[in-house]
Amino acid sequence: MFHPEVVNLSQLHLMAMTHQGPAAQLPVTIDRFIAWRKAHHLSPLVSRTFNLVHDIPNTMGDLHLDLCVLVAADAPYSSGAVVRRVIPAGRYAWLRHRGSDAGLAGVVASLEQWLLGQGERRGDFPLVIERSHFFPDVEESEWILDVYLLLA
């Protein structure tokens, strides 16, 4: 069982590439996003990495998420495949997950269970995952993922 903390986040400006469809095709989207980041000199060493998870993968293996990079509010980036997104300021339930994405289902379940127990309600925004240590820089068992759930 995980024990979330309530934290306050400031508004964050992002550039995002959406993946909507089979999970098996996600590596193609990731490769395109990495190429875009490299072209704009936005490596993970200089700009934070986020995912906005719009829905949990369904039984068909489809998923809907945005691959995101933190940018300045007035960043001049523009592209058909990469669009602006904003993580709203507010109160968030936060959990840190160490390890692969496979363990995220347990984290999300714990957050949902915690919401019920605390009398909190989920806000109207996707699940936010910040990836601070991830492939290819560290082994999968050493990944660090901060998971945020907006509170209403």
Explain what you see.
- Helices cover 19% and strands 39% of the residues.
- With 152 residues, it is α+β, with helices and mostly antiparallel strands.
- It has one domain: Multidrug-efflux Transporter 1 Regulator Bmrr, Chain A (Alpha-Beta Barrel).
- A hairpin with a 6-residue loop joins β3 and β4.
Summarize the structure.
The protein has helices spanning 26-39, 104-118; strands at residues 5-9, 12-22, 49-55, 62-70, 83-87, 90-98, 127-133, 144-150. The protein has 152 residues and is an alpha+beta fold. Strands 1-6-8-7-3-4-2-5 form an eight-stranded antiparallel sheet, covered by helices on one side.
- Name the strands of the widest sheet in spatial order: 1-6-8-7-3-4-2-5
Please give the largest β-sheet.
8 strands, antiparallel
Provide the CATH topology: Multidrug-efflux Transporter 1 Regulator Bmrr, Chain A
Q: Tally of extended strands? A: 8
Helix-strand topology string:
EEHEEEEHEE
The structural domain count equals 1
Supply the CATH superfamily name. Regulatory factor, effector binding domain
CATH architecture: Alpha-Beta Barrel
Q: Percent helix among the residues?
A: 10-25%
> What distance lies between the first and last C-alpha atoms, to the nearest angstrom?
23 Å
- Spans of at least 5 consecutive residues whose pLDDT stays below 50 are none
Question: What is the CATH top level name?
Answer: Alpha Beta
Kindly state the mean pLDDT as a whole number? 87
As a whole number of angstroms, the C-alpha radius of gyration is 15 Å
Number of helices: 2
Strand residue percentage:
35-45%
Looking at the structure, what is the overall shape? globular
